[in-house]
Amino acid sequence: MSDQHITVLLQEAVDALVSNVDGIYVDGTFGRGGHSRLVLDQLGPQGQLVGIDKDPTAIAEGQALEQADARFSIEHGSFAQLRSYMDARGWDGQVDGVLVDLGVSSPQLDVAERGFSFLNDGPLDMRMDTTSGISAEQWVNTTDETEIARVLKVYGEERFAKRMARAIVKAREEAPITRTGRLANIVAEANPAWEKGKHPATRAFQAIRIEVNNELGDLESFLDQALEVLRPGGRLVVISFHSLEDRMVKRFIRHHERGQDVPAGLPLMESQLNRRLKSIGKAVKAKSGEVNANQRSRSAVMRVAEKLQ
Fold first, then answer.
1. Span 255-285, pLDDT tens digits
2. What is the CATH number of domain 10-106+215-307?
């Protein structure tokens, strides 16, 4: 399978993001640079773009772009470090737009050695940043059964989480689980109700990946920081690929759109409600042509919000 990455909702995301051609922008998930390159195409000579990514392979790509375009710089780390990157540049509260495209890129999924895929056998790693943190192999072989079940249920929304956790613990007593193929087989055998068109290990692998990479914790931290680094009128653009992420983004926007919680009937002026965001348009999904060309875009949901104050 090709490791060519097709950027999801490319034009839609960049159109929503860029409002000032000489502004400051952040691509919090640089990946292979699809969104970043189109942003740079739309920026003027004074525009600035910072890319952030955990993946060392993505950083190599970003460093090449950094050499080719002085308006661009790359940071190796998590978008959960957004504010520190902006502070270091003196840009806190001055950013015109922040974009994140969540989930896993095609090169990460398709290269068996990265350990993300239940279809391609490889070392059980799953770390987006292969230079730090614990691998999926370490997690699967050392975590207790109750916690494994919790992660599979909460992050994978897996109905058979307890059965799968029990099967994992039993299997690792015979020999450590070190390969994606073996883990996929263990989980598949513990799944009594295979869904048509979906591999029985899909939800479990998603859950373990989210846990190993602290994806939801990083997203929560990022959203709070994005609100602080944006200038009034600046845009937040988030592309999600599963319901847990999308719900978190939707609730965050709604909370800051509603403003301060106050007792019913308390007389307050609009300005006292401290509304900090307004939602821009409805949730955007990939059009049929994009889905046909790239099946991974079918679950993508993009939400856009603008900072008010």
1. 999 876 555 555 555 555 678 999 999 999 9
2. 3.40.50.150
CATH number of the domain at 117-213, please? 1.10.150.170
Q: What are the pLDDT digits (tens) for 186-243? A: 999 999 999 888 899 999 999 999 999 999 999 999 999 999 999 999 999 999 998 9
Same fold, 10-106+215-307 and 117-213: no
Closest C-alpha among 94, 56, 96 to residue 76: 56
Yes or no: say if 103 and 241 are a contact pair by the CB < 8 Å rule: yes
Under 8 Å between Cβ of 256 and 276: yes
- CA neighbor of 9 nearest in space, from 74, 77, 100, 82: 100
Indicate the domain borders of the chain. Answer: 10-106+215-307, 117-213
Residues 6+ apart with CB under 8 A from 109: 116, 117
